[in-house]
Amino acid sequence: MTDIRALTPGDAFATLLAGNERFITGRPQHPNQNAARRAETAPLQNPFAVLFGCSDSRLAAEIIFDRGLGDLFVVRTAGHVMGPEVLGSIEYGVSVLGCPLVVVLGHDSCGAVAATRAALDEGPAPTGYVRDVVERVTPSVLAARAAGLTQPDEIVDEHIRNTVDLLVDRSRVLADSIAEGRAAVVGLSYRLAEGTARLVADRGLGVPVRTPGAEEESARAGGR
Q1: pLDDT digits (tens, 9 = 90+) for 4-29
Q2: Deepest of 6, 9, 37, 146, by most Cβ within 10 A of its Cβ?
Q3: Model pTM score
Q4: CATH number of domain containing 81
């Protein structure tokens, strides 16, 4: 079993992206999914990343990042909204299990973001506890609009960034771990059709975040 104490946040991030690349290209290795791994992880778990993602059925973390048993400590809610139980779970992954990386995973065509936009534009808000989800996503949608962002994918990215910031602002455990270089929190935006996971937020990793359209602009500049 990999000793995560030897992994830096950058190592963990690179491992995650390598698995996603295998998934995108149709060459998954399905690591750590056999009987030997099952027996190895039965006494204890040693994940290398906390994955806090949306509950969407198309966002199965171990599949899209080509990982297996004991690799990822997964927490999921609709629209990756958080409460005390989510914060406690993520802090457990970092402070007790020693994960050097926390990933907030959002995606295009997010139902929670779409429902929030509809409630703000048309009303009324959904009933039951779905309304609570909408209320927790609302600050992100309002912030996106205040910044002049109107496209659905731009609003999703803003919600991911807002979630990353909220995690670090609310959790002293995460803030201290980042300050000491022991962990990083990143936000990834997943494309359902392509299977790609794009970095949109970084707290503590130090990787350049490219805004939508930057790749196209860079390509045009290189062609001049």
Answers
A1: 557 999 999 999 999 999 999 999 99
A2: 9
A3: 0.90
A4: 3.40.1050.10
